[in-house]
Specification:
By secondary structure, this protein is of the alpha/beta class. The chain has one domain (2-160): P-loop containing nucleotide triphosphate hydrolases (Rossmann fold, 3-Layer(aba) Sandwich), CATH 3.40.50.300. Helices cover 57% and strands 13% of the residues. It has 9 helices and 5 strands; from the N terminus they run H-E-H-E-H-H-H-E-H-E-H-H-E-H. The protein has helices at 2-5, 20-31, 38-46, 50-57, 59-75, 91-100, 110-119, 131-146, 160-171, and strands at residues 9-13, 35-37, 80-82, 101-107, 151-154. It has a 5-stranded parallel β-sheet with strand order 2-3-1-4-5. Helix 3 (38-46) crosses helix 5 (59-75), helix 4 (50-57) crosses helix 5 and helix 5 (59-75) runs parallel beside helix 6. The radius of gyration is 15 Å and the shape is globular. The N and C termini lie close together (7 Å). The structure holds shikimate-3-phosphate. Shikimate-3-phosphate binds at residues 16, 20-21, 39, 50, 84-86, 123-125.
């Protein structure tokens, strides 16, 4: 698999709570590749947290930084790259990922996403009265776009190592 990848990265896309970061980290270890998390890289580049970026500069500025950070990371592949849930919605980012990597959509049901995002509540887009409805709307909007990913792996509530093997199998 490493040989077939060449300089191409494995890029995990999908909703908040789908497990991109946690599965990505383990997948990288499993394949002996470096791991990068676009959200973390954006925070480092900006010198502030994602909620702070949204609050001080707004979502468009965040999206702009996200695009730049992801295209820079992709130049330095191969790696396993976890992207934020909105990243793949950009045509430009999608094209960059197609050029430099293999996109893998971690697809999860609303219930699983909700349970997961409730555990970590630092996502500006979910600071609403009704995160369930917000997530459901985002699912409607985003799933047709995520479906353009090269591979789709359905994310179940199983141990992360099982998900890692499911991704490895899909890539094989
Ligand atoms: C976002 C998802 C977040 C983060 C930001 C916006 C989104 O990343 O990039 O809060 O638009 O879905 P995760 O998918 O890693 O939570």
């Amino acid at each position: 698999l490493r040989e077939r990848l060449g300089s191409r990265s494995i890029v995990l896309v999908g909703m908040m709570g789908a497990g991109k970061s946690s599965v990505g980290k383990r997948l990288a270890r499993r394949l002996n590749l470096p791991f990068a998390d676009a959200d973390v890289e954006i925070e480092q580049a900006a010198g502030m947290t994602i909620p702070e970026i949204f609050a001080h500069h707004g979502e468009p500025a965040f999206r702009d930084g996200e695009k730049k950070v992801i295209s820079r990371l992709l130049e330095n592949g191969p790696m396993v790259l976890a992207t934020g849930g909105g990243a793949f919605m950009s045509d430009e980012t999608q094209a960059a990922i197609a050029r430099h990597g293999i996109s893998v959509w971690l697809k999860a049901e609303l219930d699983l996403l909700l349970r997961r995002v409730r555990r970590r509540d630092d996502r500006p887009l979910l600071k609403t009265d009704d995160p369930a409805t917000t997530l459901a709307r985002l699912i409607d909007l985003r799933y047709p776009v995520y479906a353009r990913a090269t591979l789709t792996v359905v994310s179940h509530d199983v141990p992360q190592d099982v998900m890692v093997e499911a991704v490895v199998d899909a890539l094989a």
